[in-house]
Amino acid sequence: MKLGLDDVVAAETILSHVDGEAGRLIIRGHDLEALAGRVPYEEAVAMLWDGLVPSSGSDLRALIGAARVRAFARFAPMASHLSGLTPVEGMRLLLASLPDTEKDHAALAVGAAAVAAAMAVRGARGFSPVAPDPSAGHAADLLRMLRDAPADEGEAAALDTYLVTVIDHGLNASTFTARIVASTEAGLLSSVVAGLCALKGPLHGGAPGPVLDMLDAIGGADKAEAWLDDAIGRGERLMGFGHRVYRVRDPRADVLKAAAARLKGRNNRVAFAEEVEWAALKALAKHKPGRRLDTNVEFYTALLLEALGIPREGFTPLFAAGRTAGWAAHAIEQERTGRIIRPQSRYVGPWPAEAA
Ligand code: CMC
């Protein structure tokens, strides 16, 4: 038995494939690099959902835009409940309020996730929500709802690149969770909420905020090597490094690094981050020889989202907003198998005393 189910195959999927040895991510027959930065998020969603989600053949940009409006109408009265919650908790609260019986539930989930992410990030800081514009592209509208200022073309393209990059990624912890919930026929929106709950932990989707905390603590490139050496020496895990499946560099890291480097502005710390990354890889090779630890998606996620002016506590909600399309597709795929996921545990506790 493997505690972390390493290498256990628990589902068949047509959605995505992660090749951990080659550092390759295939999404519905396309390499990540052929999609991210080349198609808007809605087009990637349509491709991912093709033949699986009933609405995938329709105009998804319009359907998801309408879903943002529908979700905003439901969520706006709850805005006052968001202060005192972290953004990811606020997002969980909002999404959990959606009934599983809603029509076009997959498109609603995607629209609602963006609205909930933006509203929860603003609400946690005491700002009022910004209403969606259904005619705008999903990424541009998400940025506008977050910052209450229009996104320029380069910024919208960068967020599109990010959302497409994280749209799906094999049977990661949150996707497996979503599939387990779907296998009980609990419903698609419940599956998405369950996925969010699994994503929020620092070992999965909660890492990018702490990546920036680490860069802040390091302070300058000249201090990186000593700082990282100390941290690993104390047994700490470096956020943004290591992966259960990738034994080489996570291909998403390079896609996001290139997108972040293209963004101009005072928030852009990519050059500094590159020096920290180099020092981190050196320190990991020294302290964990033979472990094959490399950069994962979260490292440059942090740099990209920071350059877009998004506060670090909003990074996990944005990850969830992108991944919702994947969770929804996996939930439908799992439901179609008609089989509940129900593994076994091995009992290692005491046995009752035999009756005399
Ligand atoms: N920093 C330092 N040491 C590490 C790291 C790290 N980031 N990651 C793994 N190790 C060590 C680990 O301590 C272990 O060493 P030892 O055998 O001496 O105890 C060895 O490398 C093997 O690690 P593991 O525990 O078998 O790795 P895992 O597959 O259980 O964990 C992980 C994968 C992603 C949870 C882990 O690498 C980690 O905690 N990384 C930091 C958090 C992070 O960046 N998370 C985002 C993951 S990518 C987004 C996603 O797809 O979810």
From TrEMBL:
The protein's annotated pathway: Carbohydrate metabolism; tricarboxylic acid cycle; isocitrate from oxaloacetate: step 1/2
Key word Ligase present: no
Highest taxon of source: Bacteria
Entry-linked InterPro entries: Citrate_synth-like_lrg_a-sub, Citrate_synth-like_sm_a-sub, Citrate_synthase, Citrate_synthase_AS, Citrate_synthase_sf
Family under the similarity heading: Belongs to the citrate synthase family.
Alphabetical list of NCBIfam families matching this protein: PRK12350.1
Name of the protein: citrate synthase (unknown stereospecificity)
Organism: Microvirga terricola
Organism ancestry: Bacteria, Pseudomonadati, Pseudomonadota, Alphaproteobacteria, Hyphomicrobiales
